[in-house]
Specification:
Elements (H helix, E strand, L loop, with lengths): L5 E7 L8 H15 L2 E8 L9 H11 L5 E4 L2 H4 L4 H13 L3 E4 L12 H32 L11 H12 L4 H7 L1 E3 L5 E3 L2 H9 L2
Parallel strand pairs: 1-2, 1-3, 3-4
Antiparallel strand pairs: 5-6
Helix pairs in contact: 4-5, 7-8
């Protein structure tokens, strides 16, 4: 592949996976050598792919932003990330914006330097859009269910005694911020809490 001289290898196994990363690394090293690429870094995580804060994964992107290599080679897309299509597409786009190519060893069609680059990215973008729609539908369904069960949504309502105290202190010329530091109320769990400055503003604005 033209323009590819240096490569970074990323390998990952989850904490519950008995497979050794060395199995992945051995194949990825051999493939890189066959392609004539010089390996300038190996990034290995023993973490769940559903986590974004994998230390070697983050270091990989830090180095990609500095263009320390031309390509990232990983075993398979699910070894690269298991955070869902939307997040995975974001990561791949991030590499693209940094001028770094990406390639999956096991899925040869996932190759940003290959002939099907645009088609693959278009498919991933479509899947990401569908994922966003599903997330939105799940949120809406959850809100509808909560409403049908009679649960109050949004900010908890202040008790009448707290509202009366806020208005009383305001009439005395006390600032909103000072009122927020003085007025307390008991929430639904029985804890005493200070009203927030935003709550004071809303109470006074509703008069």
């Amino acid at each position: 592949m033209e323009g590819i001289n240096t490569v970074a290898i990323y390998a990952r196994v989850s904490t519950r996976d008995k497979q050794e990363t060395e199995n992945q690394l051995r194949e990825l090293r051999a493939y890189s050598k066959k392609q004539g690429w010089r390996i300038v870094g190996e990034y290995v995580d023993h973490e769940s792919g559903g986590k974004a804060d994998r230390p070697q994964f983050r270091r990989l992107f830090d180095d990609a932003h500095q263009r320390k290599f031309d390509m990232v080679l990983f075993w398979a897309l699910d070894r690269f990330s298991r955070e869902g299509v939307l997040r995975t597409l974001t990561y791949l786009n991030d590499l693209e914006l940094s001028g770094v190519e990406f390639k999956s060893y096991a899925e040869r069609y996932i190759d940003s330097s290959g002939l099907f680059k645009e088609a693959i990215l278009a498919i991933l973008a479509t899947l990401a859009k569908q994922e966003r729609i599903r997330l939105s539908e799940r949120v809406k369904a959850g809100l509808d269910r909560a409403r049908s069960e009679g649960r109050r949504l949004g900010r908890p309502k202040l008790p009448d005694s707290a509202i009366a105290k806020i208005r009383q202190l305001h009439r005395q010329g006390i600032s909103k911020r000072k009122i927020a530091r003085r007025v307390r109320y008991v929430d639904a769990s029985g804890r005493r809490k200070l009203v927030g400055w935003g709550s004071v503003r809303r109470v006074l604005a509703s008069r």
